[in-house]
Design brief:
alpha/beta; Rossmann fold; phosphoenolpyruvate carboxylase, domain 3; 7-stranded parallel β-sheet; 21 helices; 45% helix; globular
């Protein structure tokens, strides 16, 4: 294993057993440096055991296949464990039998608090913990939850804690607007990771920035549409809904913006808590119009129309007996549907961003069959829309562009989720050259190892400096290009320019922290660690108080769609501390079961998914869980309003409900419902 001079320089303290963060640009070999530290650690430390943790599933396989397996498997036992393989069910056993474990941070965190012998591990079971993309070790992120336990044990002088090695290309500034706050942010990350020092090369003769082949940056800015009849029509319909709501005297933010979306989310929450069906329903429809405007601003007009049209087709199928508000909103769309479609198909007013994107892709694909690129966009919906546009574009197809979408594995209300196997398939096809263009959400910003990529387009994105640095780092080929495509004078353009200043601020802040005296640095880190410990205790106490605020028997759940009272808080249990199920056998009379079965890619240990469930009014609720031989409904709290002894609140997340939920007992459930189950069989 050969290392460059700057890699030797940054890993020296880690080879001595110190906790460090390696700060190197994307593509300059952080993982290879960490791999060497792991190898020397395994060779020299008694009973050594290494864990490499990552924040995205596809990185588990990548680090295993490209780094750890090729270099270590002849001498050490290396295993990859992620959410899509069965090894996680026996995590503790595989930890005992292997020298190196590569897994997601969430799997390790779950194992640290698990009750079963097959899954439970302790931090002290490991001697070295490598944390990839360690800048995520802040706030309530899983990295930080994992490290909070480490810091607490460290303050208590517990022995045999693992050595920490963090890797990052972009610690960021934490939304700092001054040098002092940027320094505080860097110090907080150091404290969270119990870092002895942030390591980066001092020797400029082996500049890792040059080695990592930084791309040329260009701003591709387009003007607003000179005329926008389709967008104006959408806004006209939104104003008519506001008139119906008697909100004409209210000053609303501009339609089609994130600020407006936040206002509509609040309006829907008000409608739920007040049980003002008119307000809640209008908010739901206005949000969909706003989504359509987002799509209109991002991709084709026809995509924006189809998003709205699909929404209304689905709502009409579900709401078989619409109330007066739903009937009015259905009629409003029906009356204007033909006109919207006509305007959406008028190519004279198409999105100018698409024309510019076509030029960029032609520039990079027409002269080389080896070209590869990534387009980063904000939503899953826009990744699919851009993919459809590229496939339908004959000029681009003539240049041999073979594209695919890459999105997250979680479920979404707008689009089908992407399974982890499908993610891997797309990434592998891109790496091997079978695909030469990926349209991706932020899932591909960090860690995706494709050195040949020579064009990266950030398509109308407004994110922070860390995301900018990570996305730019995907372009690693010779004479590669990083394009920022947006409207002239837009918030997105202004944010990208600000990000460049924040990147410089981040670098100055890191250098300042690196140059602090050892005593000053150590004192500051210890203060921050103690402060974080106190804040966590206060926060946990507040969570406990919230969970015990009301007796579960006193909290009544109402369907968000029709306000029907359908369950008490005491009817619910948790399965694996994650899934909230209703164990009241009478609950089944309140909902309908769809014909569609839920598809979950990975195999669960004790249960499998059944079918989707909806309230009798059509409101979505969740889906069935087939737990061993019984079927119970998993419920999403966001589809309900909670009537407490004091007030009515909109459900958001189960962790925020003001009552405690007991753990599900299979044996107790079967005993209590045995007679009912036998009756159902008869």
């Amino acid at each position: 294993m050969e290392l460059r001079d700057y890699q030797w320089e940054v890993i020296k303290p880690a080879l001595e057993g110190k906790n460090i963060i390696i700060w190197l640009p994307t593509g300059s070999g952080k993982t290879r440096a960490a791999l060497y530290v792991a190898m020397r650690h395994l060779e020299t430390k008694m009973n050594a055991k290494v864990a490499m943790i990552v924040n995205k599933v596809h990185l588990v396989h990548q680090h295993y296949e490209k780094e750890f397996k090729p270099f270590l498997q002849d001498r050490f036992k290396v295993i990859e464990i992620s959410g899509d393989n069965e090894e996680k069910c026996f995590f503790a056993n595989f930890v005992k039998k292997n020298d190196v474990i590569i897994c997601t941070a969430q799997i390790l965190q779950n194992a640290l608090i698990h009750e079963s012998e097959e899954k439970y591990v302790k931090l002290t079971d490991f001697t070295l913990l490598i944390i990839d993309e360690c800048h995520h070790t802040h706030k309530d992120g899983v990295y930080n939850r994992l490290m909070e336990s480490y810091i607490e044990k460290n303050i208590s002088k517990e022995r045999n804690l693992p050595q920490i090695l963090g890797l990052t290309a972009s610690p960021g500034t934490g939304r700092a607007n001054s040098f002092e706050k940027a320094v505080d942010h860097i110090l907080q990350i150091c404290a969270n990771l119990d870092t002895w020092k942030i390591m980066s090369p001092k020797n400029q003769t082996s500049d890792p920035v040059a080695i990592s082949k930084q791309p040329k940056k260009q701003y591709d800015l387009v003007s607003e549409r000179t005329q926008d009849p389709f967008g104006n029509k959408l806004k006209e319909l939104m104003r008519r809904i506001h008139d119906y709501l008697d909100k004409t005297n209210c000053v609303y933010p501009e339609f089609g913006t994130q600020t407006y979306e936040q206002k509509i989310v609040e309006l829907e929450k008000e409608g739920t808590e007040e049980f003002n069906k008119k307000k809640r329903t209008c908010a739901l429809h206005l949000r969909k119009y706003n989504d359509s405007l987002f799509t209109h601003d991002t991709v084709r007009m026809i995509d924006a129309f189809q998003l709205l049209d699909s929404f209304y087709k689905q709502e009409k199928a579900i709401r078989t007996l619409p109330d007066p508000t739903e009937h009015l909103l259905f009629q409003l769309f029906d009356d204007n549907c033909a006109k919207l479609l006509e305007l959406a198909e008028d190519v004279r007013f198409e999105n100018p961003k698409l024309s510019r994107l076509e030029e960029i892709l032609k520039d990079h694909f027409q002269f080389s069959s080896e070209s590869r690129g990534i387009i980063f966009t904000r939503t899953r919906q826009s990744t699919h829309n851009l993919h459809d546009w590229i496939v339908a574009n004959k000029a681009l197809q003539n240049f041999g562009i073979n594209a695919a979408s890459l999105t997250g594995a979680g479920h979404s209300n707008q689009t089908k989720h992407m399974t982890q196997n499908k993610q891997q398939e797309v990434i592998q096809s891109f790496r091997k050259g079978h695909l030469n263009l990926i349209i991706s959400t932020s899932v591909a910003e960090e860690g995706l190892d494709i050195p040949q990529c020579n064009i990266v387009v950030r398509y109308g994105l407004m994110t922070n400096e860390t995301a900018m640095i990570q996305a730019r780092g995907r372009a690693r080929a010779e004479e590669s290009c990083y394009s920022f495509l947006a409207k002239k004078g837009s918030k997105e353009m202004r944010r990208e320019i600000t990000n460049e200043s924040l990147e410089d601020l981040m670098k100055r802040a890191i250098k300042h922290v690196q140059n602090m005296t050892e005593r000053e640095y150590e004192q500051k880190v210890k203060e921050l660690q103690k402060q974080s410990l106190i804040e966590r205790k206060v926060k946990n106490q507040k969570k406990t108080e919230l969970k015990n605020l009301f007796n579960p028997d006193d909290v009544l759940l109402h369907c968000k769609g029709c306000d029907a009272a359908v369950a008490w808080g005491s009817d619910f249990r948790t399965v694996e501390r994650t899934h909230h199920v209703n164990v009241n056998p009478n609950f089944k009379y309140y909902y309908q079961v769809s014909s569609d079965r839920v598809v979950i890619e990975r195999q669960m240990q004790d249960w499998s998914p059944g079918r989707y469930i909806r309230c009798n009014c059509g409101q979505e609720w969740g889906y069935e869980m087939i737990y061993k031989n019984v079927t119970i409904p998993i419920i999403s709290i966001k589809y309900f309003a909670l009537q407490t002894p004091e007030s009515r609140i909109a459900g958001k997340k189960w962790k925020d409900v003001p009552f405690s939920v007991k753990e599900f007992s299979y044996s107790q459930y079967c005993l209590e419902n045995l007679d009912l189950m036998e009756d159902d069989d008869d």
